[in-house]
Amino acid sequence: MNFSQLLWGTGVSHSGDDPQVTGLDYNSRRIQPGWVFVAMRGESSDGNKYIDAALKHGAAAVVTDSASEQQRRDVPWAVVSHGRRALAQMSANFYGHPAEKLKIIGITGTNGKTTTTFLCESILRHCGRPSALIGTIEYHVPIHAELTQSGVTPFKVLPSPHTTPEALELNQVFAEALDGGATHAVMEVSSHALAQERVWDVPFEVAVFTNLTRDHLDYH
Asked: What string of DSSP letters covers 82-132?
């Protein structure tokens, strides 16, 4: 995939060369040679401050949500109006739009998200629907293997850095789940993630709202 293909659907074009892209990330410390660095403003920090650090790690191109950021010499460059939306589109492009190949259940609300997510995943798995799970406690990804004696597809457990990850990690999990034979995904969608648009353009099949209480009103 080249840089222009990665940008499909973002509504922007780039300036400079059109290099081959072997990965992307919004964390400059994880950038590897040939990757695209997505410099975007977050809640507590601004990724645009780390563009030069990403280039030192071998970034092949930069996507920034800062129109005031000066393009670095000989660096392919794109400016987007919304960093997280662009990250979501590019992540989907890079991983082959895995969310579109799954039936996704999103569960939000102040309380009960984790319990409801585990219940839904268990029901689906026992009905012969291998499912990924994304939530507060852990992530589950089905494993392509012979069914257990109970007829339930086994899965592996991944650590959960965030209840609802950024779009990049979300697409990574969806892609791995598809490779493992998943047909469904059940995920907790926190109110913070909704406000921050981490699930931008995720094609939810079902949305579940558990309840609303006073938690997090300081944020919202």
From this structure: -HHHHHHHHHHHHTT-GGGGSEEEEEESSS-HHHHHHHHHHHHHHTT--EE
Specify the pLDDT at position 145.
60
Helices (H), the chain: 3-6, 51-56, 83-94, 113-126, 167-179, 191-196
119 domain residue, yes or no: yes
CA distance 20 to 15: 15
Q: Report pLDDT digits (tens) over 64-92.
A: 999 999 999 999 999 999 999 999 999 99
Q: Do 163 and 111 meet the contact criterion of CB atoms below 8 Å apart?
A: no
> CATH code at 161?
3.40.1190.10
Asked if 110 and 51 sit in the same domain, the reply is no
Q: Tell me the average pLDDT across 147-171.
A: 86
Question: Nearest-CA neighbor of 104 among 6, 210, 207, 218?
Answer: 207
pTM for the structure as a whole: 0.93
Residue 139, SS3?
Answer: strand
Tell me phi and psi for residue 108, to 5 degrees.
-130, 170
Look over the chain and give the mean of its residue pLDDT values, rounded to a whole number. 94
Residue with tokens 């190949």: 101
HSE-CB at 132 with a 13 A cutoff on CA atoms is 31
